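Here is the promised in-class demo. Please do not try to memorize the tokens; focus on the logic of going from shape to residues.
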């Protein structure tokens, strides 16, 4: 099994396709937004022609009205891995939703269940103080969790505080104490990160501009015309959240690309923080000419085991 991960805009898909050209692979997406059928431009989803040539498991499997969790991913990924192996293919997991990878290979923590009354209390506090104050509280009690959660991700902020208030134990500690999933073999883990930070930032800026030019605003407008989507968990994804802010008059059109770029850079920073704290991966520069040859050699070693 091979895992290709890294920060957003780091070249993961390109490497996965290169491997699929050389080996009998089944690509399995590890992306919390690509699961949604209606989200295309803002997720950098491969187009229909590319998906036909390189089929991906766990892409376009969910309607945006239906939330998708790490638990759902573990169930679906295990099934996809088993199917790939039954077909004598190498499972290649590709994507940057690191919580999903952690859940798959280290297990899901058994945390306190949701508490409706406490959630209402947190929402009431947020209504009076603002979500910034709630996020600041999380940062005080659990800086590790706060570093992994976007300040605008209200659902995860609320859950992290809920767990802490219910148990007195930080959610990051619950996750650290989770039990490994014994049915999963440890993969060959490849981490793609440009050697120079400014190169990653340039990639992010280019992607943000390309998404808007490709019709991201129009995609969100069309979704809003069909149903109420603004408060859906799926719409908290970077890019979609900023477009909704623009459509609601909270930011100007001239600032939209910059806002998306800034939010994406913040996401990449959180991903890098997580990756550095999780040993076991092999780091590669996607800009280096030798990367594909070195990765192919490693995968050949996996195949020949």
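The designed amino acids, position by position:
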């Amino acid at each position: 099994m091979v895992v290709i991960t890294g920060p957003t805009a780091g070249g993961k898909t390109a490497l996965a396709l290169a491997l699929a050209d050389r080996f009998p692979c089944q690509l399995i997406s590890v992306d919390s937004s690509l699961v949604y059928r209606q989200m295309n431009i803002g997720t950098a989803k491969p187009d229909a022609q590319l998906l036909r040539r390189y089929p991906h498991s766990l892409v376009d499997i969910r309607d945006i009205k239906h939330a998708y969790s790490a638990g759902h991913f573990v169930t679906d990924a295990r099934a996809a891995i088993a199917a790939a192996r039954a077909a004598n293919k190498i499972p290649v997991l590709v994507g940057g939703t690191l919580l999903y990878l952690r859940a798959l290979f280290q297990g899901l923590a058994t945390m306190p269940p949701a508490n409706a009354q406490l959630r209402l209390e947190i929402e009431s506090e947020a209504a009076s103080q603002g979500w910034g104050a709630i996020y600041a509280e999380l940062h005080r009690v659990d800086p590790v969790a706060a570093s992994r959660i976007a300040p605008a991700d209200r659902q995860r902020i609320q859950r992290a505080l809920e767990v802490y208030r219910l148990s007195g134990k930080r959610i990051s500690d619950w996750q650290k104490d989770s039990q490994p999933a014994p049915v999963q073999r440890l993969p060959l883990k490849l981490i793609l990160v440009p050697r120079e930070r400014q190169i990653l930032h340039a990639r992010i800026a280019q992607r943000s501009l390309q998404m808007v030019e490709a019709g991201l605003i129009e995609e969100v407008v069309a979704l809003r015309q069909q149903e109420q989507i603004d408060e859906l968990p799926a719409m908290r994804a970077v890019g979609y959240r900023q477009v909704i802010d623009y459509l609601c008059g909270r930011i100007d059109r001239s600032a939209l690309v910059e806002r998306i770029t800034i939010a994406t850079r913040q996401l990449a920073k959180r991903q890098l923080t997580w990756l550095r704290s999780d040993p076991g991966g092999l780091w590669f520069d996607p800009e280096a000419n030798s990367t594909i040859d070195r990765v192919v050699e490693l995968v050949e070693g996996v195949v020949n085991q």
